[in-house]
């Protein structure tokens, strides 16, 4: 009896961890394909747990979103930091756009969470502000190098990322290739064309 009593807390902890992992796996998959509007009850059903179990582990949807996208946040930060560390600012800037577009296309929910104005999403807001500041500094370096168009503003990059969310509707098998093509077009649009060329002429 003593051995059973000693093993019971461990078994309960193991079962609780298994439930938690299944909820996170289900949430990541559903958020990735459908965005953040997936109801909690659908996540619970996909994970094979009851709603009470889900809410015991994750009292609010935001806590689940925060936990589900920790790895993506780390990947996003690594992309920006590595791009900013490139001694060639234009190459670093182009690399950031390409890699962020691919990350964007792979996971609709992460981009929705990262760009969210929800006041409860403090973790995402802090990361977004920090990474945008680093990218803005990289953009200034690329402008000084004469590679990035002089009228570029950070809202232009945000616009590209928001537009890239449409890639989530593409079949998964071709999503990355489409994302790379989208990034190529965006990078070309941001390239400085030289003296005397107006915005209107660039669009022709």
Describe the structure.
It is a single chain. The chain contains eleven helices and no strands. It has helices spanning 2-34, 40-47, 51-57, 61-68, 70-85, 89-106, 108-114, 122-144, 154-164, 172-190, 199-202. The protein is an all-alpha fold and 204 residues long. Helix 1 crosses helix 4 (61-68) and helix 6 runs parallel beside helix 9.
Number of strands: 0
The helicity comes to over 70%
Rough shape?
A: elongated
Low-confidence stretches: 1-12, 195-204
Run of helices and strands: HHHHHHHHHHH
Largest sheet entry: none
Mean pLDDT metric? 85
* Spatial extent as radius of gyration: 21 Å
Strand content: under 5%
Structural category: mainly alpha
Features:
disordered N terminus; mainly alpha; 75% helix
Give a brief rundown of this model.
The protein has 204 residues and is mainly α. Helix content is 75%, strand content 0%. The N terminus and C terminus are likely disordered.
Strand and helix layout:
Elements lengths: L1 H33 L5 H8 L3 H7 L3 H8 L1 H16 L3 H18 L1 H7 L7 H23 L9 H11 L7 H19 L8 H4 L2
Helix pairs in contact: 1-2, 1-4, 5-6, 5-8, 6-8, 6-9, 6-10
């Amino acid at each position: 009896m003593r051995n059973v009593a000693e093993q019971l807390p461990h078994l309960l902890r193991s079962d609780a961890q298994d439930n938690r992992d299944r909820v996170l796996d289900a949430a990541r998959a559903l958020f990735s394909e459908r965005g953040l509007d997936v109801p909690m009850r659908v996540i619970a059903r996909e994970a094979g747990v009851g709603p009470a179990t889900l809410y015991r582990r994750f009292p609010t949807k935001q806590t689940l979103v925060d936990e589900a996208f920790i790895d993506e946040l780390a990947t996003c930060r690594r992309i920006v930091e590595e791009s900013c560390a490139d001694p060639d600012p234009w190459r670093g800037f182009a690399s950031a756009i390409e890699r962020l577009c691919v990350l964007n296309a792979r996971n609709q929910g992460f981009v929705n969470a990262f760009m969210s104005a929800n006041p409860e999403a403090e973790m995402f807001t802090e990361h977004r502000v920090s990474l945008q500041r680093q990218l803005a500094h990289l953009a200034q370096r690329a402008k000084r190098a004469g590679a990035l168009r002089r009228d570029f503003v950070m809202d232009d990059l945000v616009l590209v990322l928001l537009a890239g969310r449409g890639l989530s509707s593409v079949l998964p098998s071709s999503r990355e290739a489409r994302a790379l093509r989208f990034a190529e077009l965006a990078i070309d649009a941001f390239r400085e064309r030289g003296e005397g060329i107006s915005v209107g002429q660039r669009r022709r």
